[in-house]
Design brief:
The chain has 732 residues and is of the alpha/beta class. The chain is 64% helix and 10% strand. α15 crosses α16.
């Protein structure tokens, strides 16, 4: 088989592609770039994805595409079936890679017989666990553990030289035949022994059941007279009960008549009594009227409050100086500061007269007319100025009084406007409250008149709401009494009619009750019937069991045949056991050739890888290898070797297993994932030399995170291998 190209959406791979060539392919890529993902993808494309694994490290979780896309991929390969293309994709979220198809490359023609489950084994010729322990080589999985399929394949090749012929398979077939006849408590012989034991137990049980059936039949025959006697006594009780039932019918008839009389009396005393529905309607209206009366009281309270508020507002408004004026008239009302002071007419003559008097007085005293004239003029001027100053003072006082009055008027106007508004609002509120009170009062009066008019048909003298409530209470009581009487009359009538219809016929001769009570007789009858039924069930069960067990004669014949069959199988069992002993003796010698053959081939490869330092490799039954140096006498287990040498030893064992178990006609590719990472340069070169030689017969894919493999092969074997840089290749 030769892989040509891969395309994957798998883990970190997103529509990535990988083109491969025959022979040795070196795929170089740094860590975390998808090398291990490519190897896991190739394994899944061949053998499918285990969707039943629910562990956290399951492949279906581990390799979910990072991009969130659906898991899918294709593989083109050249196989013994021809050029084919495998496709696995995710059709349902709970079944990743569950959809499978295989077609011939470049066509839509399916490959017949190639299924999803058997794809890898059909193409490679080996099951998955053999592939993972041979051609699927990882750095973390170099060690080889036990596998039944791998061990059987190697053992068959070593012991017989053919993969389809195995001593262990023959021994397994003999063991199955032996187990078919006897294996612990299973097999034909234990089954026959168990069947014989069951037959003998059945015969013994038949004998016991027959005796028990006879005993139960005798007991049933003795119970029949006692049952008949008890039933007769109960019949006498029934006859006495008939007379009691007739007396109950007569009593019920009298009760019904009494109930009818009471109903007639109540109906006569309450002819105009409203029905219950009418009473409940009136009660609802009375309750509503109580609410309306409460609303009337509330409206009256609001009216009183509004009237009080209006009186207070009118009182405050009447006490104001602008009372009777509108706010606009108050704003333009004249000032009451009096007339502005004017200069008196007497001031000038008084000043002149005072000057003349002063001038005359000076002239008379001094006899100087000029001095007198000057004195008169000066005094006149002083008196005139004094009068002018006094006049100005009066004007200033008047102006101050006028300004003060203006301020008082403005303040009064500012106070007067809110008073007018408050009085208007209080008047509007009082009018609204008056209207509401009148409306509610009218509604209450209307409802009350309507209620009283309805109640007066029953109680003519009812006049107000309290009397209406009393009348309603009385009407409810009368209606309850009447309804109760009518119900009682109906119940008694129905009871009497039922008893009358179900009454037994009048017995011709009165029956005498037995001394035992009905309860005692019923208890005794129940016990007898229970015992009778139990005995009948047991008898029927016993008879059914006897019929189910079969005829004793036939059972004896079957027992004889079983004994003969058991003797024949025992002879076969002894013969097969003897054959297994002989086969084990002959196969033990061949089994000793298993480990040496594999160890010899692994030693040859290990010697090449280590440059002749080790010349022997031994393997135990658990596939644990040990190696022996050329110059030493004792082997060393892999655990005590260095990491690099241990990896080389495991690689040698893996390659030896590939040569021994992989079908030669399939040329199965070998996958190596960082398998040489712990090798030094010299042993790496030896390993690459061997892999290059091995690639002449099969395709080898070596994934590495280092450049040294490619550098060495480019120097030593140019043009003999295919070199891929994974990241650059993926981009292309």
């Amino acid at each position: 088989m030769e892989i040509k190209r891969l395309a994957a959406t798998f883990g970190r791979l997103e529509q990535d592609r990988l083109e491969l060539e025959p022979g040795l392919n070196i795929i170089e890529a740094p860590n975390e770039s998808g090398k291990s993902t490519w190897t896991a993808f190739l394994r899944v494309m061949l053998y499918g994805l285990n969707t039943r694994d629910r562990s956290p490290s399951a492949d279906k979780r581990r390799y979910l595409p990072w991009s969130g896309s659906a898991m899918e991929g294709t593989l083109d390969a050249s196989t013994h079936l021809g050029e084919i293309t495998l496709l696995r994709r995710t059709a349902r979220a709970n079944s990743p890679m569950g959809s499978f198809s295989a077609v011939y490359t470049g066509t839509a023609q399916p490959v017949e017989g190639l299924t999803a489950a058997a794809c890898g084994e059909t193409l490679l010729g080996i099951p998955q666990d053999v592939f993972e322990r041979s051609a699927y080589i990882r750095q973390t999985g170099l060690a080889v553990d036990q596998s039944k399929a791998l061990e059987q394949r190697i053992n068959s090749l070593v012991t017989t030289g053919e993969e389809d012929v195995s001593l262990s398979a023959a021994a397994e077939q003999l063991r199955r035949q032996l187990n078919t006849r006897r294996h612990n408590k299973t097999g034909l012989l234990p089954q026959l022994e168990e069947e014989e034991r069951v037959l003998r137990a059945t015969l013994a049980e038949l004998e016991t059941l027959s005796a028990a059936a006879d005993q139960r039949q005798q007991t049933l025959d003795s119970l029949r007279p006692q049952l008949e006697e008890t039933e007769a006594l109960l019949a006498r009780h029934d006859a006495a009960d008939q007379a009691d039932e007739l007396r109950k019918v007569e009593s019920a008839r009298l009760d019904a008549a009494s109930a009818r009389d009471r109903v007639k009396t109540l109906e006569a005393s309450s002819r105009a009594l409203p029905t219950r529905a009418e009473l409940e309607s009136l009660q609802g209206r009375v309750d509503a009227l109580s609410s309306i009366n409460s609303a009337v009281e509330d409206a009256r309270t609001r009216l009183d409050l509004a009237s009080h508020t209006l009186r207070q507002a009118e009182k405050a408004l009447n006490a104001h100086p602008f009372a009777g004026l509108t706010p606009a008239e108050a704003a333009s009302a004249p000032l009451n500061a009096g007339p502005k002071p004017a200069m008196p007419r007497w001031m000038l003559p008084a000043a002149i007269l005072a000057g003349l008097l002063a001038g005359g007085a000076v002239a008379w005293l001094t006899r100087l007319w000029l001095a007198a004239a000057g004195s008169a003029l000066g005094l006149f001027a002083v008196i005139a100025l004094l009068f002018l100053w006094l006049f100005r003072q009066k004007q200033r006082q008047w102006e101050a009084a006028r300004d003060q009055l203006e301020q008082q008027r403005q303040t009064a106007v500012a106070e007067y406007t809110p008073l007018c508004e408050a009085e208007a609002k209080a008047r509007a509120d009082q009018q609204a409250a008056q209207a509401a009170w009148e409306a509610v009062s009218a509604s209450a009066r209307t409802n009350l008149d309507s209620i009283l008019s309805q109640l007066r048909a029953f109680r003519p003298l009812v006049r107000d709401l309290p009397e209406a409530c009393q009348a309603l209470e009385l009407a409810f009581d009368l209606r309850a009494d009447l309804d109760s009487a009518q119900r009682w009359e109906e119940e008694t009538r129905h009871r009497w009619e039922a008893l009358r219809d179900a009454a037994p016929p009048i017995p011709s001769v009165p029956a005498q009750r037995p001394a035992q009570s009905r309860e005692q007789l019923r208890l005794r009858l129940t016990e007898l019937q229970t015992r009778d039924a139990s005995l009948r069930r047991e008898l029927h069960t016993t008879q059914g069991r006897i019929q189910a067990l079969g005829d004793p004669g036939e059972l004896c014949l079957r027992l004889q045949a079983l004994s003969e069959r058991q003797a024949a199988l025992q002879q076969e069992y002894d013969a097969i056991a003897l054959a297994m002993e002989v086969l084990a003796l002959s196969g033990s010698e061949l089994q000793t050739r298993f480990s040496p053959a594999l160890g010899e081939r692994a030693a040859s490869i290990f010697t090449n890888l280590t440059g002749g330092r080790y010349n022997r490799v031994m393997l135990d039954r658990a596939m644990n290898p040990s190696a022996q140096q050329t110059d030493q006498l004792t082997p060393r287990e892999a655990e005590v070797l260095s990491q690099g040498t241990a990896d080389q030893l495991y690689l040698a064992v893996r390659l030896a297993i590939c040569e021994m178990v992989l079908p030669a006609d399939r040329a199965i590719p070998i996958l190596l994932d960082d398998a040489l990472v712990n090798f030094d340069d010299e042993r790496m070169a030896a390993a690459l030399d061997y892999l290059l030689e091995l690639s002449a017969g099969r395709q080898i894919l070596l994934f590495t995170c280092q450049r040294r493999e490619g550098d060495y092969l480019s120097w030593a074997y140019p043009q003999r291998f295919h070199y891929i840089k994974l990241q650059e290749h993926a981009k292309n």
